[in-house]
Amino acid sequence: KNTDVVEAFRTEEELLQRFYQKYLEINPTILSGWNIDGFDIPYLYNRTKRVMGEQIANCLSPINNVYYNEHQNKYKIAGVSQLDYLALYKLYTYTQQSSYRLDFIGKLEVNMGKIEYEGTLDDLYESDINKYIEYNLNDVKIVKALDDKLKFIELARGVCHLGHISYEDIFFSSRYLEGAMLVYMKDIGVVAPNKPQRGDMGSYEKFAGAYVKDPKPGRYDWVFDLDLTSMYPSTIMTLNISPETKLGKLEGWNAEE
Questions:
Q1: pTM assigned to the model
Q2: I need a surface site. Which of 3, 34, 142, 197 has the fewest CB within 10 A?
């Protein structure tokens, strides 16, 4: 069933008014899309601020607070979690791809690519408005198909619930691990110490670490370096022996035989 609904407007202001009306009706908890942190959200926010004013642009947030986080180099919408699907894909896939463009990943994972056109998007808008509309709809369909297959948003939410952290903290592994440990310690009746503030950590007494001998420059025989990065998780993934993949036990089977 085709559920696509296309609405036309005479001015950009009317378009943005309708978008924000629909956005507030949906009242999303999570925003996702391909590279939304790098393009969609900053463009939408700044364009709305220019056309309709900052007050309307801040309506992206349920508490009217949209700000630029210099540390993370992206706009943050207070009260709404931004799970950029490009970032999720890089986080939860373990092979390096030659390209992370939506067209390439869409064809690789779900056999769906972006609609091809000649010239610029402005040229397409002027020459073939129907194809222009389908181009935009198709991008959304690709991301939807990716999540239907990979379910990375569901995975991220599950991990965050276990660690009792906000959804966006999924991109910082130490936070959900720390959260999971705090939950476990509470369950066994152990009160964990408060984490020191960033400014207080420098005041702690320092102590000597392991001895590191200065190397003597030269050429040596029978020396090699074996660097096993993340050996245990890599082995588990390679052999598919993670506990949740276990289907059952074979009775009467002897591995030595």
A1: 0.75
A2: 3
